[in-house]
Write a structure and sequence with these properties.
By secondary structure, the protein is of the alpha+beta class. It has one domain: Thiol Ester Dehydrase, Chain A (Roll), CATH 3.10.129.10. It is 24% helix and 36% strand. It contains three helices and eight strands. The protein has helices at residues 29-46, 51-56, 133-144, and strands spanning 10-15, 59-60, 63-70, 79-89, 93-101, 107-116, 118-121, 124-127. The strands form two sheets. It has a five-stranded antiparallel beta sheet. Strands 2-7-8 form a three-stranded antiparallel beta sheet. The two termini are 25 Å apart. The mean pLDDT is 93.
Length: 148
């Protein structure tokens, strides 16, 4: 995964709850994926479209690849800050790199999620090979990052 550029970064703060942990109180590996999805949905909302509205328009943004690198465990009750950046790749793939930061700024985990746009019509799902203008604008706003 590349280092983050100086672009504005999407931020979401979460707290590790009992349902996010294993029997030892350590954040369960699957909870990271849930946090990542919530972070992406939050960023979409902040650029002006809810995932629900996107879906109503006949589109979905499924994950096609996920890479997680765990460095330092999070435990029950701990705050986790997710710092994310999006990048439009090959005109149709949207990559999202995320750092999971501990309260002291240490990196607890790194993730790279690769997404694509698909259309769902007439009970079929097809990869969108040319982004509609409105969707491309949304992806570029995600790439640009939030306004400060």
């Amino acid at each position: 995964m590349n280092e983050f550029s100086n672009k504005n970064k999407w931020k979401l703060t979460k707290r590790v709850l009992p349902q996010h942990t294993d029997h030892a109180g350590v954040m369960w590996h699957g909870a990271y994926l849930n946090f990542l999805e919530e972070s992406r949905i939050d960023a979409l909302k902040k650029v002006g479209i809810s995932y629900f509205k996107l879906s109503e328009k006949g589109f979905e943004i499924p994950v096609v690849a996920a890479q997680l690198k765990y460095k330092i465990s999070f435990v029950h009750g701990e705050k986790v800050q997710l710092i994310s950046q999006f990048k439009l790749v090959n005109k149709i793939r949207l990559n999202c790199e995320t750092l999971f930061l501990k309260s002291n700024g240490d990196i607890g985990a790194k993730a790279l999620i690769e997404l694509v746009l698909v259309s769902k019509q007439n009970n079929s799902i097809k990869l969108v090979r040319e982004l509609p203008v409105q969707i491309k604008k949304i992806f570029l706003l995600l790439e640009e990052g939030p306004e400060i």
